[in-house]
Amino acid sequence: MNAARPASREHPGQEESSGGVTAPLAQGNTGAARNCHLSTAAQPPPASALRYLGITHYARGAFNDLERIIREEKPDFVQLPYSVLERDAEQRLLPAAAEHGVAVLVMRPFSSGTLFERVRGHPLPGWAADIDCTSWAQVFLKVILGHPAVHCPPPASPRTPPTTCARASAGCPTRSSAPAS
Length: 181
Known about the structure:
alpha/beta, TIM Barrel
């Protein structure tokens, strides 16, 4: 997010490309603007439908910046990498988000497909039925959704219909602890 411009203008032309629909949230990449100040970016034009402002980054190397912004500027949400294989966020980011009431969106909950490569050809363990899982996707999602700070893991996957079903079965749509407007 560029602090010199209103958050809703970060990507010019996005309204045209989305059929004129404006999303009520904006997220900025901490790597794109290290000196981003949410208080500046949170001043949208009066006609804006912006309700939530958040930050994102895909690399562990940015976790110190993410934590600082969570603690000092308290965005509405943070999006970060977290999965069965990528658990670094558990150390400081997820506790900081919980402490400051910041919603957590998880990117790459399937580690960009690596998790599926590792379990290909392996049957589900017997305990998967005990937690109402019928697929590896559900197991992986339930593990990360088991952390109390995690709100939703929007999978970045070309297999949208099966993943959407896995998310629904794993409980993602029923999480209701998103930040109040």
